[in-house]
Amino acid sequence: MQLSNKKPNVAKLLTLATCSLLGTAPDAIAAEDTNQWRFDTALMYYGESERVTAVEGIIAASKEFSDQEFLNLKLTLDTLTGASANGAVAQPNVQTFTRPSGRGSYDIEAKDTPLDDTFRDSRVQVNAQWSQPLAENYLGSVGAYVSSEHDYFSLGFNANIAREFYNKNTTLSFGIAAAQDQISPEGGLPTPFSEMLTVQDGNANGLNRLGADDDKTTVDLLFGLTQVINRKMIMQFNYSYSQVDGYQTDPYKIVSVVDNNGYALRQLYESRPDSRNKNSVFWQTKYHLTNSVIDFSYRYLWDDWDVKSHTFDVRYHIPLEGAYIEPHVRYYQQQAAEFYQPFLLDGEPSPENISADYRVGEMNGLTLGVKYAMELEGDSELAFRLEFFQQTPTNPGFETPGVLADVELFESVSAVVAQISYSF
């Protein structure tokens, strides 16, 4: 989330922007021409209808110690509660599922999407980023972050270098980021394709488990070009490559095995590949109209899981007297992963990998929102953002046998996002 509306020199901050696209740089924008600390704070609420609720707080600090030498720090705290889809299919009868800990169970009413209501989590993340000139027309940046949840720990580093040309109208940049994650799910790591046991089977906890934890590594590369077109237009082009190796299965997701009439016979734990290579291209254009600015971006992503996605994003910045308003529209469309299946027919050979998680399925999403910000005394700003989000999973071509034709297999998810931010 963007916490500040200050407009510092683009060349000074391009390094931070590039690392931010890698997902590692703080979101705070460094203050220009000052040796004082600047703070950006935000509180965000995200709520899905009858599902997940999240509350996130951010405080970011930035300071310029000397010419073009910036330190950025950020602390993020968030909590998540509610219910999350476990991947099983809805049924015309009540279903009972074992909780991830193996020490209890929960019931799902007839025709309802199976949701695990034990979803609880909290996260603490700290980011630090330092940028400075390396030589004439060269800017460099290094940073690190650490993030901790009750079942997930992540540590990451990043570095970036940018070279300016043609009176700073053209900038080429290269960034690299690496992360090491440890996954320690509640109840341990389930054995892929093993059956979810019930509490009645006698202490399901610890059964069908590979171990207590596993890890994965991620390496991201980014190549960027920023070009000032004229006094009113600036463009940015990026290509990024990401390689992920290690445990990528969601330990809390299952897949239903159904008979020819669509009735669920058993639940199996999902399995995903232990490697993933992602590519994406990104184009952003900002154009200054007479009294406003339009910001348009497009991203295309593809990977070796056969996931392909398109993201269109438009923001329209409209200045007001001592304030501004910014409408926002975002559209997202995704093709399903090659191993996505909403269910598995009994008797069919098991594929090498399988997941019924709608997040790797076929879907589209639409976000509509608006931001309003006002200038306050002392070079401070107060802003409010409200957005509505609709995510619609779709059937990528699977036939639905028997009773599955009478239940909702691809249920839409609606959410509201509300944020208040204060910069000083």
UniProtKB/TrEMBL annotation:
Organism: Psychrosphaera saromensis
Domain of life: Bacteria
Signal peptide limits: 1-30
Record carries keyword Signal: yes
UniProt keywords, alphabetically: Signal
InterPro entries in the record: DUF3570
Name this polypeptide is given: DUF3570 domain-containing protein
